[in-house]
User: Fold this.
Amino acid sequence: RGYAQIRYNRLLETNPQLKCDQCDRSLGAGNGFFIRRARIVFSGNVHERLYVYIQPDFASSPGGSALNFVQLRDAYFDLALDAAKEFRIRVGQSKIPYGFENMQSSSNRLALDRSDAINSAFANERDLGVMFYWAPSEIRERFEELTSSGLKGSGDYGVFGVGVFNGQTSNKSDANDQLHTAVRLAYPLQLANGQYIEPGIQAYSGKYVVTPDQLSTGVSLGSEQQAKEGFTDRRVAASLVVYPQPLGFQAEYNIGEGPEFDPETLSIKVKPLHGGYAQTMYRMKFGNHILIPFAKVQYYDGGKKHERDAVSHKVYETEVGAEWQPIKNFELVADYSIADRTTRSFANLYNRQHGSRLRLQAQFNF
Amino acid sequence: RGYAQIRYNRLLETNPQLKCDQCDRSLGAGNGFFIRRARIVFSGNVHERLYVYIQPDFASSPGGSALNFVQLRDAYFDLALDAAKEFRIRVGQSKIPYGFENMQSSSNRLALDRSDAINSAFANERDLGVMFYWAPSEIRERFEELTSSGLKGSGDYGVFGVGVFNGQTSNKSDANDQLHTAVRLAYPLQLANGQYIEPGIQAYSGKYVVTPDQLSTGVSLGSEQQAKEGFTDRRVAASLVVYPQPLGFQAEYNIGEGPEFDPETLSIKVKPLHGGYAQTMYRMKFGNHILIPFAKVQYYDGGKKHERDAVSHKVYETEVGAEWQPIKNFELVADYSIADRTTRSFANLYNRQHGSRLRLQAQFNF
Amino acid sequence: RGYAQIRYNRLLETNPQLKCDQCDRSLGAGNGFFIRRARIVFSGNVHERLYVYIQPDFASSPGGSALNFVQLRDAYFDLALDAAKEFRIRVGQSKIPYGFENMQSSSNRLALDRSDAINSAFANERDLGVMFYWAPSEIRERFEELTSSGLKGSGDYGVFGVGVFNGQTSNKSDANDQLHTAVRLAYPLQLANGQYIEPGIQAYSGKYVVTPDQLSTGVSLGSEQQAKEGFTDRRVAASLVVYPQPLGFQAEYNIGEGPEFDPETLSIKVKPLHGGYAQTMYRMKFGNHILIPFAKVQYYDGGKKHERDAVSHKVYETEVGAEWQPIKNFELVADYSIADRTTRSFANLYNRQHGSRLRLQAQFNF
Assistant:
């Protein structure tokens, strides 16, 4: 079981310098076809109380120009505390319960990339630690149905989730002597007419260390304490999902503070951040074909801690697109985006780029 | 399903400086046992119209001294346009339809390495893009039979194939704003006496960028346009395969032009290239044992674009050997080669090495 | 089939500078949760005479800060010479038959790490080559039973084993023109009362090359011959295992010589080495729960050839701990260790650290 996404981003492109590394490294000048994700899942209940989930990505880069090495995304183990699996301890590397869009599999997302505002919380959405999830059986079934029915749910990250984890994001060693904490509440309500609505709130807090390999010579980390113990890194977010039956709506917003490059002092400081997105979509069926047009707007003003020197970002982006599923194993997405992105980093103190492009993605589910 | 090849190349060696990096990094001084390939295939028809093929290699190096990391070779998805799958669109990273020997799986090749002349077209034979293949059902069956019967066919890359792809070879990002194009025609004829003969022609064209990580300080790229847009890279090849029933013959030749190091100006220039190989083999059965002696001669004069500074090569090599299959899951190959190889690169402006050696390979099919 | 180990090492820690890189890179300052191993085995008899075993590790690092890439541990192929598989040729990368603890799977070991004395023989316990194993059928069954019954045996590496291999340890290219040789004898005796006892002896010999990427500028390799052909690297070891029925005992000791950093001359020299460990353990059952308390002492005085500049080590360590298996798919180990470790390397000519800590490991078997 798995999926793969192959993209071509260069149609109707007005500005080849308009990029977003966390979104998709193949945006802009010099790029062509790109395997954004290729994943195979090894999972199953190996005991009535133990569920295993291992998901490597076959399109990861260890650095340099070499692509398509295999690296872990998920490697987690759910220990059920009760027979109905309402209470679970999750050990390993897994998604941090922060943000509906982060929880939702990329194979289910309509827009090609997650929003900068929510996704900047955790590169690759994951970290290594211990989580506790609780959901009543009937809600577990509802989470399941929201995914299997094609409504593009998040999967089951509990009605209540809380956990501790390293805090340096996935596939990185921890770098200080304290852990991050995250907590989340989400509930998929079913209205009398069958409509599903899922509100959620979540927050996390910890200290993030900007490690030497992420720091340019000439950039200061402020105090020695911040260099060693890390920068305050905390956020709170609200989510609302109205599932597309057939008209849907989805919005998230988060505020917080975290490490961010300061162009005036050439140092990294703890700065406020905020941003979010709103999306509407409409799910149509034509025979066996499913077509889902969507529109999304997003905004983010803050740092991306995992980028070199904790790059400062200001993002305005609007997308309109459609996903077409002629068969359940194949999806084609066209996504037209208009963006205005400003980054500030040591390499470029003020880099504002705006433009538009049409992006295509073929997704194969197997 | 998969296969692995483990080699030892140091027997009767007359010149430890005689090497060929694209062929086998474990040739020559300081080497011992080497895992040349270790591959597991995940494939299947996940829908009547969708075939998935994912083949990682477990013996890839991300650079430096670390071996045996896992990297993609193939990750492609065949969308059948008709129920008989005569018309297929292939999306993803896959072999470029250029050269019978390139198409043929290494698990089926008799000689340990592909010829320099044809294989220098694409490192690892693959790239990322979109291909179209057509073959009538009966010819699809014939391609299948030519492999399954032990005649060492290429598999089904269509009677007609055409595609566009990045052009920087597999597991590399594209580097310019245009795609390569390849086209191929091949037809496995069956004579009245049952003998199979497969002639083929193929060609490709594009611009190949010598990226900064492939360029030594001190080597010039000629014009700034060539540095950015790339060097002309195009070839045409003819192939002829007479399948070993029991006597076989196989030959390919290609001509073209591409980037090549010029030792006089210490720059990379577009230069003509040409070369090919011819092989004869004889398939014998002794009870359940199969024995296939073979002889191969090859010649190449041209650059290898994927090597640092597009190394200039002049290759004369003769091989005699035999493959022994005591059981279908195990093959042992002995390959005695006599070679005269001259390379010209910035690191060594004139490096001519000749010598001979006996190489052994154990191949396990599973 | 496979297993994963997730650790947290920072409880009751008295000295965050007390580290051991070969043991566990997540020991000490700045670390948190860590995936020590995550392995999936692809194995099976693909022919009555051919057994395939491919085991990648999903928690390997290609260097730098990137974790959790996938790299081979085992890729070996057993060719049975007889129908009963008493005589086997093993080709590929596999464990070198040297030391019971090295042969025993980490999934079966009680202490979190192998002893420095035995494990310093081969980083990751493996190398690439050709082995011959012999064991009578009844002893093959006994090896099998010693593992499957939960007695934590080594698996079947023969009563007699002998092999040749590159000698630069697993996932590294060979670096000189000669191979290492290893030989081992081990026999699991069954006493009249059913008690199993397994004595063993083993030895290996070869030349190990300290390659340029493992050498600091300023460190001398002695003669040019040693730089090219390598340093003498040979050991002999005795092993004794009394399986826990319910009280067990296990001890190994080895002596030899190998490359080791010399702080007085800032060079690498062939120096004597010796060391070993002794462990006692008690296997208890409470209903379906299994609890195995253990105590282990170890000592090592010698070099670690695979570490930069062949770091000189002097190690005294005592561990007391317990493994708890509430279900067969889940094990929790608590390991309290008190250690006194002195390393001498070019980076730190005299680095003595002592202290204690409590380590936790969750192991998932699937």
About this structure: The first helix of chain C runs from residue 100 to 103. Residues 2-365 of chain C form a domain with the Porin fold (CATH 2.40.160.10).
